[in-house]
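Hi Prof. W.,

I finally got the cAMP receptor protein prediction working! I wasn't sure whether to trim anything, so I left the full sequence exactly as given:
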Amino acid sequence: MLDPHDYAHLLQAPILTGLTREQKSALLSACTVRALKPATPFLRQGEPTLGSYFIASGRVEICYVDSSGNQVIVHIATTGEMVGEVEALSGRPCAASCQTLTDTTVLFCPTKALYAHVPPKILIPNLCTLLHDRLMRENRNRMADHYYSAEQRIRLYLRQLTSDSDDSVRISQSQLGVVIGCSRQTVNRMLGELRDAGVIELGRNSVRVLDPARLADGAPATE
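And this is what came out:
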């Protein structure tokens, strides 16, 4: 059993909105810690799951593969997000696969723990809020795919993958190319231009945003 004080930042997770601090701590205490140094798959498309996962630190790559074997990264989830809760609560197989990126810690939350510690009158609205946020994100990404240039898309996704509290993202140029739908060479050129302009800093399989305001200047407006 974990100590919820070690993961106090997860008390603000959207799925827990409306619970008392005691209820939140009780739920986190029922979770199991998985600290994963290398990239590790933990939810597989088409397979059932007995629970969901809080992302305590790091990032999780969410991928969908069609019947022809084509793969697309649909989202990169960050600290504080939860994955797998829709499938865990509905009993449906996983709609996509989840794999941690390097140095990521997740907390496995059994479905029975969610039911035990989150009353339905809180769980249902919170779940609907999460689904609404995902629908809005999908709407924005579809608009980006259809109407925005590659440079606008890369700025948009770098904004989505970073924040004021976490200005770096561990992602390779190949992965970023899959996310925005262009070649690695195009990504390399655009990242080089942003680096030379002082907007970002490039590391080994990582991007750090130095100037969020200038990054946003060339990105599409978001709600």
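The CA atoms of residues 176 and 187 lie 7 Å apart. Does that look reasonable to you?

Thanks,
D.
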